[in-house]
Amino acid sequence: MKTKSKNRLAFEDEVMSNLDSMYRYALHLVRNPEDAGDLVQETCARSLKAADKFKRGTNARAWLFAIMRNIFFNQYRAKSRGEIPSDWTDEVVSGDQRFTGSVWPQPFEMFLRSVMREDIDKAMDELSADFRSVVLLCDVEGFSYAEAAELLEIPVGTVRSRLHRARTSLQKMLSQWFNEGLEADES
Amino acid sequence: MSPECVFVLDHYNDYISGELTPEKIARVENHLMSCPHCEKFLGRAFRIHGHTVGLLRIPAPRVLRKSISNLLDKA
User: Fold this and answer.
1) CATH for A6-79?
2) Which of A75, A155, A168, B6 has its C-alpha lying 20 to 30 A from B36's C-alpha?
3) B61 vs A30: CA distance, rounded Å
């Protein structure tokens, strides 16, 4: 059995630790789970060919996303349909712990979380692909404006303005949920 | 609404994104200590943002994780 180098093992760790992010980005690009899985597989296979050149400490996620984006534009774009299936968020994870806690009191939240999935899907679907991209990269994946700008090949100021407008749109579309939740939380 | 309230309104998205300079962060946070309206506004914005992001952060399916793991093992 061939022994793997430290660099190679580090590369594999990066791939596996970024798998959720890659899947979310793939889903955003191709808009259906089956193609998203294929796109992730192809991205991993393509990146493996260059794995020997991988150096620890480099931004592996940005590199993997760039490979995925290139594959998408070369192969998948024509067949992507722009629809989100109803099970898009079936495997929802819990709220982001970096932030200041739940919008709603606990019992209310458990119920709302399940009902809200559909509205989140719809709200994201209402955004243009350009807006969805920056929400996904900056808000969901934590890319800096500069990193997102480099990946998307647009100016940093465009990332900033798209993100701000996208957040405003999402908040408006989901305002009913948040207003009710916040009122309950603050009472 | 004071000029500092306007400053917070203009910069709260970048504040949430962690994209403000240390000087601007200090200016926002200094104002929050003396303005309950802006403190409440920014608190709401943070919570809405955090909750939306949490709902969007879906994991890769287990079958895909296994498939990629196998791909790496065999390569």
Assistant:
1) 1.10.1740.10
2) A168
3) 16
Chain B contact for A93 (CB, 8 A cutoff): yes
How many pairs of residues across A and B have Cβ atoms under 8 Å apart?
130
DSSP 8-state class, residue A73: I
User: In chain A, which residues fall in CATH 1.10.1740.10?
Assistant: 6-79
| Closest among A90, A88, A182 to A132, alpha carbons compared | A88
pLDDT, tens digit (0-9, with 9 covering 90-100), for A149-172:
999 999 999 999 999 999 999 888
Check if the beta carbon of residue A68 is closer than 8 Å to that of residue A26: yes
Q: How far apart are CA A12 and CA A104, in angstroms?
A: 39
Q: What tokens were used for A19? A: 């798998």
Chain A contact set for B15 (CB, 8 A): none
Cβ within 8 Å of B, A 126-145: 135-136, 138-140, 144-145
